[in-house]
Amino acid sequence: MDAHPLRTSIGDLIAGLRSIEAGIITKARVLEYLAEMDLGYEALSRYVFWDASSYTRNLIFRDELFEVLALCWLPGQKTPVHTHNGQLGWMKVVQGEILLREYRHLRCSAPENRHVVGMDCLAGGRGVELQLLNTDRCGADGRVTTVDKTQTIHQIENAETSGAGCVSLHIYSKPIDSCVAFDLAQGCCVRRSLRNYSADGRILSPITSEVT
Q1: Minimal CA–CA distance to 92: which of 11, 202, 172?
Q2: Taking burial as the number of CB atoms within 10 A of a residue's CB, which of 104, 129, 133, 173 is the most buried?
Q3: Which residues are CB-contacts of 39 (< 8 A; sequence separation ≥ 6)?
């Protein structure tokens, strides 16, 4: 699926994803498509909501194979370190700059809970140890970052101090309803359900989830 230079709307994005659904969904295929999509802040403005207590998850589109969200970050807001259930994921920053920290699982008290079919971990382990692999600074330069079954633990933070806020576009396949969040200070992890702040441009609740 080639992205025409004039395809710059959310409708164009969703139409392209639906076209991709007709074949085999791969990380490389969606990555190439998103890299050619010129989506700016204006295209996402309907889905941009800010909350002083937490970053917001704003649902744009969801079906059985894809989920599309706009995440909005005020300065200092961040996720906990978390997984993605082994699913494929793509992220593109459309305004501002965020830090992406990638981790590797080293050990825990329940290694048998990892790599379960349908989710990457059942959680509940103690003595959890993760290794920070790298920290990447991601800006609104058109670059797309990814997660997959082998690269699935990370943390996102808006480290900017300008006050303008950051907006990032996230696509998952398949949609994710929960993930494992890590408390590195306590050396434990729990499974958390995900909630959206808005859907289709309408606020659902003043309280957001803390993971993505």
Answers
A1: 172
A2: 173
A3: 8, 9, 10, 13, 92, 94, 169
Report whether pLDDT(1) > 90: no
- Spell out the domains of the chain, with CATH numbers in brackets: 49-203 (2.60.120.10)
* pLDDT(75) > 70: yes
Contact 60, 43 (CB under 8 A): no
Give CA torsion, residues 172, 174, 175, 181, to 10 deg: -80
* Side chain identity, residue 202: R
Amino acid letter, residue 122: L
Pairing of strands 97-107, 153-157: antiparallel
- The DSSP code for 13 is H
What mean pLDDT do residues 157-181 have? Answer: 90
The predicted model scores a pTM of 0.90
